[in-house]
Design a protein that fits this description.
By secondary structure, this protein is an alpha+beta fold. The protein is about 20% helix and about 30% strand. It folds into two domains: about 1-70, no CATH class; about 80-295, Fumarylacetoacetate hydrolase, domain 2 (Alpha-Beta Complex), CATH 3.90.850.10. It has seven helices and 18 strands. α2 (about 40-45) crosses α3. The N and C termini lie far apart (about 40 Å).
């Protein structure tokens, strides 16, 4: 299933080029409250068989709208946490050494030592498909990053790698917009450099876990102003998603609606006022952004 968030904070179910009013159907069945959140939609779909049955029978949820006619929003705007992996592709480590002129070498680190560099992004930074990335006046250099992101379903604590994907509700794409200058050469600055308003693009929707056979077998493509700048594959991750979930759940409870984004491949590119970005992940979907300088 493809679960979207659209128009006036409504939950929808996408079939082909149409959006069915899933949220309205779940409210009518007294499964969701009037002013529900998308995390509550995920909770209903993983914990209530009646909700899942309604979702499976999309055409009975109500009259659809054309997908082209709706405004898609970030599929989750209130995640309990956004966990972001750092330096998780060797080629990206190499390009960052060249880009920042700093020591970005991570080969000496074990996988767990690398995963200890997970950082948090604020939910206030989220924007959805078609959103505008604002380049702050303070920034001299900002890059885009495009990453596979997992949405947690059932809470996870002390989960093995073998069981890890059982706790994934679905997958989406996360764009991690990042200041390189200033502060890029300092330690412990990621939360600020990557936390400005509009610095987390999410979408275009959530594809449920059953539709993605293997999250480590997906292609990532990004175009900037019509030219391909990133072409990558999730198989090239240093630490895969199963390892991420094992590592994080060993330290803390992963909650329903938490986002785990798996790091960017090589191909990050400097942004300028007026740029147009488009791209996404095969099997999930594409989205676009415009880029504007802060006024």
């Amino acid at each position: 299933m493809k679960i979207c968030h659209y128009n006036a904070n409504q939950a929808g179910l996408i079939e082909g080029d149409q959006v069915y009013p899933l949220g309205d159907a779940l409210k009518k069945a007294a499964i969701l409250r009037e002013r529900y959140t998308m995390v509550e939609v995920v909770e209903a779909l993983i914990g209530n068989p009646a909700a899942l049955q309604i979702a499976r029978d999309a055409r009975a949820t109500g009259a659809p709208l054309a997908l082209s006619s709706v405004k898609l929003l970030a599929p989750i705007t209130n995640p309990p946490s956004i966990w972001a992996a750092a330096a998780n592709y060797r080629a990206h480590q190499s390009e960052m050494r060249e880009r920042t002129g700093s020591s970005y070498e991570r080969k000496q680190l074990s996988k767990d030592e690398l995963m200890a560099e997970f950082f948090l992004k604020p939910s206030s930074s989220l924007i959805g498909p078609g959103g505008t990335v604002i380049l702050p006046k303070i920034a001299n250099h900002i890059d885009h990053e495009c990453e596979l992101c997992a949405v947690i379903g059932r809470p996870a604590r002390h989960v093995s790698e073998a069981q890890a994907l059982d706790h994934v509700f679905g997958y989406t794409t996360l764009w991690d917009f990042s200041i390189r200058d200033p502060w890029g050469k300092q330690q412990n600055t990621r939360n600020i450099r990557k936390g400005f308003d509009s610095f987390t693009g999410l979408g275009p929707w959530i594809v449920t876990r059953d539709e993605i056979a293997d999250p480590q077998d997906l292609h990532i493509t990004v175009e900037q102003n019509g030219s391909v700048v990133m072409r990558a594959h999730t198989a090239d991750m240093i630490c895969n998603l199963r390892e991420h979930i094992r590592f994080l759940s060993d330290k803390l409870t992963l909650r329903t609606g938490d986002l785990i984004t798996t790091g960017t491949p090589a191909g990050v590119s400097r942004l300028a006022d007026g740029d147009r970005l488009q791209g996404g992940i095969g099997g999930i979907g594409e989205m676009a952004f415009t880029v504007r300088a802060q006024t």
